[in-house]
Amino acid sequence: MPRLTGNLLTMPRHREGKYLGGNMRYLPILVVLLVMVGCGNPVNNKGGDPRPVSVFVLPPSITQLSPATTPVNSVPFLLTVNGTDFGTGAIVYWNGAPLHTVFMTANQLVANISPQEVLFTGLVRVYVLSGGLTSNTVDFNVTAQ
Fold this sequence. Notes:
- The protein is mainly beta.
- It contains one helix and twelve strands.
- Strands 4, 6, 7, 10, 11 and 12 form a six-stranded mixed sheet that branches.
């Protein structure tokens, strides 16, 4: 059993595979790191960890659609959305409706466009929702044949 003496945590010697197991041989190092860094609930601190952690999440941004235009009543196609800061759960929206989206990289998504999405001419507003944040909107042009 580990013992805490003042600020020093001591671990008894152990054989690999016995008690802690072969994959647990780094447990003493992990415990020391947790003691040094803290686990968010210091014993003698009033109000939480004195080292606040700030996490900045950047909103996704669309830089390019490929293709950027298609004729009305065209066949199904794949829309490639290039940009930045796409998360693995990012979803492409087509005039406010979510599309089946495949995450390629943090800079590229691919969405399926069915014939029903290109029944009418005009501009279609495309944006990405990723991590609860919405990207800029880019217009896709459905042209007359």
